[in-house]
Design brief:
This protein has a single domain, classed as 3-Layer(aba) Sandwich (Rossmann fold), CATH 3.40.50. It contains nine helices and eight strands. It has an eight-stranded mixed beta sheet, with helices on both faces.
Length: 252
């Protein structure tokens, strides 16, 4: 192979890396639009210069659930199911920055910062707060469980780190050098003390199983209950009756 061809290949590789570095957040995050008239309260919460939109259904009692959804997920679609199955809990569905009517731009720092603000708002009214995170939201949920007191934690299709997942999908790229938002849940897990339910999809085509297994193996003995939902894919897991039944029994 000639020196010119090697130079051209190297230049192309560096160009791809440069493009991915500069455009990565538009390639990672897929914000959803705002969804209107729901049977829910829409809370507008100021966080610095931005406004965070939270969907809420409140009930009496000391218990609340905060939900952090997956990438490109309309979190409002969970409202009716959560109200029906998580009886005794007030429900708070978080639209990330740039998602569902929240202003701002998505990033790991923005997600974490605003998760703390949401928790502190909810904790003013409810002493017992459980957290549900799904897919991308498991990274936010694990972080929040290290920074605030969490009653119970539910992780749906979790991963050990976004860096590890990206490396498995794109083994030819220097992910550790390019990736800005790494969501290092595995590193944070030793600081999580809440009892945890982990729900896995048998045919998860987005999160490689060894990424989920790496996270699961880091829990303290007896801390986490792990259930594999047979027949489920990454996006269909929420449609299985087991999903709601297990979550309801765990949070009851």
């Amino acid at each position: 192979m000639s020196a010119f061809v090697l130079f051209a290949i190297g230049l192309l590789y560096l160009s791809v890396c440069a493009f991915l570095f500069l455009a990565q957040r538009s390639l990672i995050y897929f914000p959803t639009p705002a969804f209107g008239d729901l049977n829910a309260n829409s809370i507008s919460l100021k966080v610095g210069k931005e406004t965070l939109r939270i969907l809420n259904r409140s009930f009496g009692g000391p218990n609340a659930v905060i939900y952090f959804g997956g990438n490109a997920e309309d979190v409002s679609s969970n409202l009716d199911d959560f109200v029906r199955t998580l009886s005794g809990h007030s429900i708070y569905l978080v639209n990330y920055p740039g998602y569902g009517g929240s202003t701002g731009s998505p990033s790991e720092d923005a997600f974490f910062r605003e998760a703390l603000v949401v928790y502190d708002l909810v904790h003013k009214s409810y002493p017992n707060i459980s957290i549900i995170g799904r897919s991308l939201g498991t990274g936010v949920a694990v972080y929040l469980a290290t920074a605030r007191k969490v009653d119970k934690l539910v992780l749906v299709t979790p991963f050990d780190s976004l860096k590890h997942v990206a490396e498995m999908h794109y083994p030819m790229l220097p992910i550790s050098l390019l990736l800005k938002d790494k969501f290092k849940s595995l590193d944070r897990l030793p600081f999580v003390t809440a009892k945890t339910l982990v729900l896995l999809a048998e045919y998860d085509e987005v999160i490689p199983r060894n990424s989920s297994d790496a996270l699961i193996s880091a829990f303290q003995p007896g801390q986490a209950s792990v259930v594999l939902i047979r027949g489920a894919t990454h996006n269909s897991i929420g449609t299985f009756s087991q999903y709601s039944e297990l979550m309801s029994a765990f949070l009851r």
